[in-house]
Each structure stands twice: as structure tokens, then as C-alpha cells.
Amino acid sequence: MSARRHPALRALSLATVVVALATGCSSANSGANKGGGAASGVLTLGKPDGPQTNNSNPFLSTSAGATLGYRFMIYEPLAMTNQIRPADKADPWLASDWKWDLNFTKVTFTLDDKAKWADGKPLTAEDVAYTFELLKKHPALNGNGIPFDGISVQGKKVVLTFQDSQYVNQNKIIQQFIVPKHIWKDVKDPETWPNRTPVGSGPYKLKTFTPQTTTLTATPTYWKGATKVKELRYTAYNDNSAATTALAGGKVEWSFVFMPNYKQLFISKDPKNHKLWFPSGLGIHGLWFNTARKPFDNPALRKAMAMVVDRNAIYTQAEATLYPEITNPTGIPLPAGESFLAPEYKSATTKPDVEGAKKVLADAGFKLAGGVLKDPSGKPVKLTFTDPAGWNDYITGLSIIKDNIKQLGIEAKVKTQTAEAWGADVANGNFDATLHWTNSGATPYDMYQNIMDGALLQPIGKASQIGNFGRFKNTEATEALKDFASATDDTARINAMNTLQKIMVEQAPMIPTAAAPIGAEYSTKNWVGWPTEADPYAPPQHTQPSALEIVLKLKPAKK
Questions:
Q1: What share of the chain is helix, strand, coil (3-state, %, to 5)?
Q2: How much of the chain exceeds pLDDT 90, in percent?
Q3: Dihedral over Cα of 398, 452, 139, 169: its sign
Q4: 20 to 30 A from 162, CA-CA: which of 54, 323, 381, 457?
């Protein structure tokens, strides 16, 4: 896969860029030889993103601060959420408390009196209100598309109001990072401002920036207290191969890189200290059908194909066991989404069922003759899978699916494209079926809305930029999504979520193939305290907001 992803998944996409062709020696890796370690208080991080441009605007997903992840070391959220345990209550951060009204159209934040900016000025309710006003005034900065209405300051409290329920957006709102009004109010164009000397409330400030290496140093007066990690050093490598080499050699202590053979390339180099953990949130990867094209408009065909896909083979062969396996036909990743499963699907599995799939097809009027499946009109069922060349995990996944559906008499071929051409074709509906990702959120709503929402539906030829690339048209699904988002009680939400799961299983607008991980590789040689499966206090990926929580928990390893 490539870095050309929906902004919400940019961090994931950059982790899964396949190993590029060798580009020879380059200054882009010049920062790799600088020393680190707990003795010097330095933690080294790396990503395969190539040289960066000096831009620390925290609102821009394309900035170096976002790409490398250091924006979350400088700017802090109102509350800290845990994407891999979305049902857990968020930890208070800049806000000591927050309260929603019963219908989620109003939230009141109470700020922590101790919070202050790195330049010593107090962090006030006016700063929080100003940040939300920025998002309301500048849609280009409002990456989550939150529909702000009223924004007011009441003493030390900030009150936000909305015209509609924000139940599905509540985590996005409470984890919003805050910027200082006394600096940003004088910026003429915040949508393009590079913010090269960023000032936040976090424990780190920018020390030096080069296209290859960015260094942050600890703020001695951080309002939450002293930090054990005194310096963060981010190196931008040219490709996965260079980043993997740096990880294996100990020059980088924290990264996320897709490694088809991670046991040999990384773990074996230091079995005691080299670790990785790739948990999932509530986003997935899957095979999207163009349901506006025949015969893929037939739900029986899509369901039958879903019933024969070998997710375990995709997990072991295409995703190298790094991406969590999808084991439930609803597509909801487990264990993150276990509490959302409808009763009828709690024990359901994704084990291939070829005979069951053949019966579904036969009952719908499809006929198998001479090893060829023919649709109810008598035409052979053929399709073309498309994805960008070089996205090896996706291409391998398509090859597995191609072999799986051959058992039903379906002929498929795999066509590769440039990422740009593929992206345009997906948006415009110019494809039969393609592996693609979904959005993710605090509930499975974001995933299902991305796949099935009729409000996002565009005709073939008109670009859909934000979802429903498969042109899935289903009134019941659209209404269930509305019901979930606007529900005023848990019973209504459960009913709506159960309806969405049934539609996903029975009509298969998309075949879930893998959970989207929020993972990382790291070393315990110099630093300990990392999140693990046994202590899942945060997703380990260092481009997520909770990366700050990880750094604050790290302490030097005992020698």
C-alpha cells in the first residue's frame, strides 16, 4: 500500500508502504548514525517517508509534524482516548472534566488550572474556544468535519453546542489538540502557515529541523512535571528497507514499517529487546465491489464470494501476521469491537464455506456449468481486480481471493495501476472490485458509514472523495446510520448497529479482509514502559495522539 490514503488513515498508510527500489546513498538517511539511548536521555524514532519540508502546522495532515508524528509531543488534547479500547473512558488532560447533555448536542469542558504554554503563559478557556473557532471558520483545518455551532466561554469553562447529536464524534471532539490564541491570532492564513517555531502546552519544543532529521527537546517547565525522555530524534528514511535496517541495527528505537519477514529482519537481531505489537482499532481493509455494475449489483453473488474468502490465508500470507485477522463476518475487528456485536453474530466465524456459497448462488438463479458460473441472464461471471502496482500486501491478497472464488466458477484477473490512476478510478466508480481501507472511529459507525451511507452516494463518473466508493444504495442502511448517529438512548443505538451488521453480512457491499492495525516496532534495550497486549493503555503507533502518553510513561531500562 501507499502513502496516498484518506487523511484519517495516513499514519497507517505510511507504515505499509512496500519496500521501494534501492535509491543508492542519500543524505535523507544522514541522521541515522547519531547516537541515542537512555543514558543520554534520547529516544530515536524513524519512518520511511523521505525528506520532509519544514512545516509544523498541527492541523495539516501533510505537514512534517503530522507525517512524523511530533505534533502530538508539542500540542496536547483536552482528553486522551484509547483507539484500541474505544469503550474505555478517556483520561483527563487539558480538561479536568467534560460533560455532554443527554442528546449529545452540548458539551462543557472544565480546564485544568495547572495547564500552561511552553512559553510560560497560562492556558485558558479563551485558548480552547479560539481553537474551535479556527476549526469552524476554516474547513481545511477541520479534518474531522465537526459541525460546530455555538462556541462560548463561561468563566473557566468552554461550552460547545451543535444542531445535531455528536454521539459518533464525541471522541474526536474531546481529543482535539489546543493551540495558543496569543500566537495564532496574528496569523494571516492559518491554512497555509508553516508554523516553524511551534509553541504548545506539551512537554517538548522543536530544537532543530532538517529534511532528514527533526529533534525535539524537553521543556523543563512542563506543567505535568519532568519527563524521563529528554530528547526525541525523528529520522525520515527513504524507504522501508532503510528504516528496517536502522531498526534492526538499533539506530532507531521506535517505528512502524511493514516487514514481510519481521522475525528474521527485526526480531532475530535482538530477540530480548526487539518487540512489536500491531493491535487494531475499528477500521478495516476489504474488497469493495462496484455495486452499480452488473452482476455485482446482485447481493447473492457478493455474499457468496464473501463466504469463500480465506481470511486466514490473507492474514498469514498477504499481511505477514502483522495486521490483525478478521474473524467475524460483520467485519468488526475483535477484541476492540466485541461489545458492539449483535447477538446473532457473536459466535459467527469467517471460516470458508464453499458448499454454502454454492447454495446461495443456486437459490439466486446462478448456474454452474462446465466449471463456469453464469448469472441469471446466462452470462459468465467475470471480473477484474485493481490496485496500485507495488502494494504487495494488497496484490497478494487479490491473488488469494482470485483463487478462492475460482472454486465458485468465477474468473478473475488482477490489473495494477499507478496510485494516482487507481485513486481516480476508485473515486469515479471505474472498477469492478478493489482492495481499499475504511475510516475508523470510536464505534463501528465510522467504518459502516464509509461503506454504506447513501448520503455519500455519487453516480458513476462523479467523484466520491469521502466514501461509498462502491455506490452501495440501500435505504435501510442509510436510515440505520442516521438512527445510530441521532439516537438518544443505548437501545436505539444497539438496534441500529445490529441492522447495519445484518446488512453487511447478508448483502456484502464489501468483503472485510483484515483489521487496520495501529501498531509499531520498538526496542526495550534503552527504554521500558511500552504498551503491550498485556498492558494495552494506548496503541503503540507514534503518529497517534496517544503517543504522548507513551513517551511520558517511558523510563530508562535497568542495565
A1: 30, 20, 50
A2: 82
A3: negative
A4: 457
* Three cell numbers written together for 55: 512545516
Q: In the block, which residue shows the cell 490465508?
A: 313
The C-alpha atoms of residue 533 and residue 386 are separated, in whole angstroms, by 35
User: Residue 542: is it exposed, middle or buried by C-beta count within 10 angstroms (0-12/13-18/19+)?
Assistant: buried
State the Cα–Cα distance between residues 70 and 205, nearest whole angstrom: 9
CB 237 within 8 A of CB 249: no
Give CA–CA dist 71/92, Å, rounded. Answer: 19
End-to-end CA distance of the chain: 39
What cell numbers appear for 507 in the block? 448483502
The answer, yes or no, to whether residue 12 has pLDDT greater than 50, is no
Pairing relationship of beta strands 382-388 and 433-437 according to DSSP bridges: parallel
Strand pairing report for 520-523 and 367-369? unpaired
Write out the three cell numbers for 559: 542495565
For residue 254, list its beta bridge partners. 45, 522
State how far the Cα of 350 lies from the Cα of 336, in Å rounded to an integer: 17
In the chain, the amino acid numbered 398 is L
Assign residue 334 a region: left if phi > 0, alpha if psi is -120 to 50, beta otherwise?
beta
DSSP tag of 325: P
**What is the rounded CA–CA span in Å between residue 476 and residue 499?**
8
Q: Which residues pair with 44 in a beta bridge?
A: 233
CA dihedral 238, 244, 246, 250 (to 10 degrees): 160
CA atoms of 551 and 548, how far apart (whole Å): 5
**Given the C-alpha cell 452501495, which residue does it identify?**
472
Q: pLDDT tens, 329-364?
A: 999 999 889 999 999 999 999 999 999 999 999 999
514, 350 Cβ separation under 8 angstroms: no
Show the cell assigned to 426. 476508485
The CA distance from 44 to 66, in Å, is: 17
Residue with cell 487507481: 422
Question: Per-residue pLDDT tens for 307-337?
Answer: 999 999 999 999 989 889 999 999 999 988 9
The C-alpha atoms of residue 2 and residue 11 are separated, in whole angstroms, by 11
User: What is the three-class DSSP state of 76?
Assistant: coil
Whether the upstream peptide bond of residue 324 has omega within 30° of 0, thus cis, is no
